[in-house]
Amino acid sequence: MYAVVNSGGKQYKVQQGQVLRVEKISGDVGNPVTFERVLMFSDGENVSIGQPALEDVAVEGHIVEQGKAKKIIVFKYKKRKRYRRKKGHRQEFTAVLIDSIKPKGQKATEAKDETQIEAQEPDTQESLAKSEETLEADPPKEASKKTKTKAITTPKAESEKETK
Questions:
Q1: pLDDT for 85-95, tens place per residue?
Q2: 3-class secondary structure for the chain?
């Protein structure tokens, strides 16, 4: 089971138990985080794609670490102009441990699904009986005469036949 979430203008594929490093999110270590903007969700069999986002799925986790990434050097240079600028940058990040990926209001939808299945069972039995009756009345038609296929012979094949 996995989901694709949007955070900090970037998209991340997440799974349960994964540690995800995203752009800085305010909060202390241990605070819960919920990613509401879920773009895609897969439970292993079914895939749901949002247009642009799914409303009924949420990804929950908690903050594991607040920190800064490795320093990168920004160096600007123009030849023969005596222009050089050297700058360093450390991007702040938040490490989030993904606890769960689940549909919102999952308990309410499960109860609805069970009542719908119970209500549909008698209807499906009646439809099966009707389909069996129609099959008995009109048996499937046999395939029409098979078409004959001609073998295409090449001049080389004909000459081989003559020599034999």
A1: 999 999 999 99
A2: CEEEEEECCEEEEEECCCEEEEECCCCCCCCEEEECCEEEEECCCCEEEEEEEECCEEEEEEEEEEEECCCEEEEEEECCCCEEEEEEECCEEEEEEEEEEEECCHHHHHHHHHHHHHHHHHHHHHHHHHHHHHHHHCCCCCCCCCCCCCCCCCHHHHHHHHHC
